[in-house]
Design brief:
The structure holds two protein chains of two kinds. Chain A is of the alpha+beta class. Chain A is built from two helices and 17 strands. Chain A has helices at residues 5-28, 199-237; strands at 38-47, 54-64, 71-73, 80-83, 87-91, 97-100, 106-107, 113-114, 120-121, 138-140, 145-148, 151-155, 158-159, 164-168, 172-175, 186-189, 191-193. In chain A, strands 5, 6, 9, 13, 14 and 15 form a six-stranded antiparallel sheet that branches. In chain A, helix 1 runs antiparallel to helix 2. Chain B has helices at residues 3-26, 226-259, and strands at 36-42, 45-49, 66-69, 72-79, 86-88, 95-98, 103-106, 112-115, 120-122, 128-130, 146-151, 156-161, 167-172, 175-177, 185-188, 191-193, 202-204, 213-216, 218-220. Chain B has a three-stranded antiparallel sheet with strand order 11-12-13, with no helix packed on it. In chain B, strands 1-4 form a two-stranded antiparallel ribbon. In chain B, strand 15 (185-188) and strand 16 form a beta hairpin. The chains are: A alpha+beta, B alpha+beta. At the A-B interface, helix 1, strand 1, strand 2, strand 7 and strand 14 of A face helix 1, strand 1, strand 2, strand 3 and strand 4 of B.
Chain lengths: 238, 261
Amino acid sequence: MDKAIGPVLLAGQRVQHQRVDIVANNIANASTSGFRAQMSIASEHVMQRAGPSVSMPRLATALTDARPGVLTMTGVPLDFAIEGPGFFLIGLADGRQALTRAGSFIRRGDGTLGTPDGAALLGEGGGPIALPEGGGPIVLARDGTLSSGGAIIGRVGVVAEDAAGQRLAGARFALDGPAEPAEGAGLRQGVLESSNVSPVQALAELIDASRRYEMFQSMVEEDDRRIRNVIETFSRQT
Amino acid sequence: MQALKIAATGMAAQQTRVDVTSNNIANMSTTAYDRRRAAFADLFYQQLRAPGALSATSGERVPVGVELGLGTRVDAVIVDQAQGALRATGASLDLAIQGEGFFEINLPDGNSAYTRDGSFQRSAEGVIVTDAGFPLAGDITIPIEAESVQIAADGTVSAIFQDDGRTEEIGQIDLVRFVSPAGLSALGDTLFAETEASGPPAIDRPGVDGRGTLRQGFLEDSAVDVVREITDLIEAQRGYELNARVMSAADEMLSAAVRVR
């Protein structure tokens, strides 16, 4: 037997730990509008040494599942959803820009459109969209044109998916690269995109990861027993 | 191992959703009640390996990193300002707003509150007051000898006298509009207070600048759709169970780790 078995089993358990953490975050966000699930991908880490090489698993990446979530009718006029690929562009309080598919907006105190936590929804020109005082109901056309009582008040921009960088809190991604307009995206009013977490898939992943963890655990215990046996056998002989 | 804590944030979020939904259902018969909706957001991400970092094995930049999310939180409980159905009551001091806007109410502490509940009464002094006894702004007093009161769509209040059948204008009910009604703070009793987020109140006659018009003898029903609330309740319950499942899986893994001697 090999001295490498301990570290290999430990690396295996560590990967299963991280998988459970990621699936736990997916399940916790199964009701977060616009949330995109993460998929963990493990890869092989090869340790070169004298004799046969040893392979250890490690968590390589947590990919973002780009499939859109189910669109749910809410009937609220300022709930927008994107059909097809793309993100809303929002301006955070610290001046940075971010991307999101969570389309529940409100009128802010200064009359511009924003998210419930205070970030501004940015129009195609990169500036906030001011809603007129009074006037008729707000209507969002499929191409993003916002109008009120027949008068155009702005256009909601949809940014291509390539610009999505690091994940930020609030179902957002940091803007990484130029904000190019998305091809083939259409906007819908009175509709919200649900989280794209599939509860069945998440549960399967959870069971898979926790059972594998237990499997490694029993191997660790088995190895422990083996070493004990060796020690006991040798100590009897001397 | 974060899964235990992450599952706890998920359970807390679903619990809040059940609370919000049950409050909606409890208010399915409250005049002019607007449904609330809990909105969730994910928490911060722990960067185990940032995207764009150099890989230790190959020296190349990793295109996608490992970002570990730490759960969910309640982002906001949003009041969906929606028009409820109008119900005919026939009472002369029942008013419904068809369209946007709020009635302004004078509170005993000198502040103003705003409501869409137009179920008004006549106080002993003849003043138009809410069911709770707070006077409607404008201090409209109905003369004792008046036989009936007529309230026009534009808010003009007239008293009709029995003896000679003459009509006299006795006041004007104005409506208040806010730039962001979602930013109002709820005081209970279907009353709202102005906040920094809602913007200052803009008072004008009904029908002006997008304000709704008044309908005498009608009340606005609660905007709660029970079927939708029940669907939400079931979703929240299942979400709770799913998070509880994560918690027990994480617990089993930890207890397996503890077993090792």
